[in-house]
Amino acid sequence: MRENYNIYDEQAEYAVLNSIIFEPKNYSKHKDMLEPDMFFMATSKDIYKAIAELDAKGKPIDEEFIKKELEKQNKFNPEILLNILSKNPYHNILGYIKELQELHRKRAALEATTLFRNGEIDIQKLISTCTAAKNMYVTEEAQQVTKHEYKHITPFMRSLLQDLKSINDYPDSMVWAVMLPSMAGLIGARAKITNGINLTVFPVIWSMIVAPSSLAAKSTLYRKAKDCIFGDMQKEFYREYEESRVNHKTRYKEYLALPKEEKLQTDEPEPPTLKQIIFHAGGTPEAKIKSLQHNPNGGVVYFDEMKAELELTNANQAYKALKTSIFDGETYHKELVNGGTIILYSPILSEVGLITKPWLLEVAQKNDVASGFMARYLFSVNSRHDFKPLKINENFIDTKKYSKVGEFIVEMFKNCEETITFKLSDEARLKHKEWFDEYSETVYDTETDEEATASYRLSTYVLKFMLISYIFNNAQNLIDVVASDNMLIIGKEYFDEALEIMELFRNESHKLLQLFESSNKLNFKIDDNAVKIYKKIDRSEHRKITRSEANNIRGIDKQIIDYLIETGMLISNKVDRTEYLSKP
Predict the structure, then answer these.
(1) Contact 485, 430 (CB under 8 A)
(2) What would you measure as the largest C-alpha separation in the chain, in angstroms?
(3) Cα–Cα distance measured from residue 470 to residue 484, given in angstroms and rounded to the nearest whole number
(4) What is the extent of the structural domain holding 401?
(5) Nearest Cα to 369, choosing from 535, 513, 185?
(6) How many CA atoms lie less than 13 Å away from 220 in the CB half-sphere?
(7) Is residue 153 part of a domain?
(8) 164-198 per-position pLDDT tens digit
(9) For the whole model, what pTM was predicted?
């Protein structure tokens, strides 16, 4: 059907024109998607221009008026017009319009590639032209959520992900951004994981969901996630605290009523402290220190609106330092003004923050990513078109089946006096090392300093995801993994799953950096996709890389690679079933 190397489609051009002439309202409905250069054939382009001119003048769009308009310009070809009109009316005009758009993009990119090969433009002009061609018809509405395919997701994680998505068909990254910190908060300082070489981390996860207010139903998602992971655990702590307060009040009155000599020999009753696993979002930095002192296992904090918290961390450098210590689980101590010292041995606290895009850009500072602070977050960056209209869904998530798992985990660690260290199996450790070495090399070769900061921070999450998934999957089967040293070894299947989750968040991180770049919140310009791949190719030994190596570059996916090959910006060759990419 297509000729001339698939750069145009005569049938599609005729179908669009036919549909408009037989049903002029099709032009009014779709004219924002149409332009003359979409039509490759000169006669088709002339007829479309005549239709546009008639519409602009308020004249009927029919055969006679089109004929008169073309005759004025001496461009009337009766045979072509008859050929278009002789066909039965087409109904799926939208499909043909999208076909013409795609072919228009392709022609523009191929033209630029030809000029580059002939030495008429330089590489930067080639890249900018091809990028413009790729984005020629892209609208925000067209940027729908891509369904994420998982090859290695484990049973507990899949079940909870699917149940939480059922509330409002949320983007996967948004659900993970609530699930993972919640699960990490329940484990807290009870466990940590080492790669056996140079890295040991606590399951501390910070996440931030960037989405429109109300449209995304963010709060609904995190409330349901809390019910699944924690059940009534925190409510029970509140109840115990209130009972202790009443008892303390009675004991304190009894203490005050003691004779002076007896009072000197009796300890004053200590006021009760609140056990927390879900921490209060407000309060001063000092209050947070005191809470962590009383709750050494840590937990999770939910910020229904993250703006105030980000403002506080940027305005108070001492608080930012505290939060960094909390993230890394480093021992933290503070000398109190009125005397005394507070020491936090494993101050860890996961967090989930919800914020709108305008408020994030208002509060973010230029060096937030470069400093590594903002890079510590897992981001889920969403626009209104990532969400369907809200509905009242009858949601029947069996929260108890999940909260029982959380209760089992807390009970399992109850008698452990020290933090339990989990290790990777020999196979998992080797796979992790091979992956990280290749990942690090690609980051070094292709990314700006700010991109690299975000990428390296994300790499540490792989171990955290493995630990969380391993503990919850076994707890679901009522397996006490701390009962035996052999059960403290995490296998390769958890690494495979963690890598898939990390790559999803790497894509979200890239969306955030692009947002920050467009708002002048970064110090460096992010390179175009083709430039990144060219950098990797230039630094390779044989000036070529495999497709999988290209796919590991930040911001690159299969569709982008296919587009660059299709437009001649990359040359593809297969050798023994391995596809290699090189520069034109």
Answers:
(1) no
(2) 118
(3) 15
(4) 160-518
(5) 513
(6) 17
(7) no
(8) 998 888 899 999 999 999 999 999 999 999 998 88
(9) 0.80
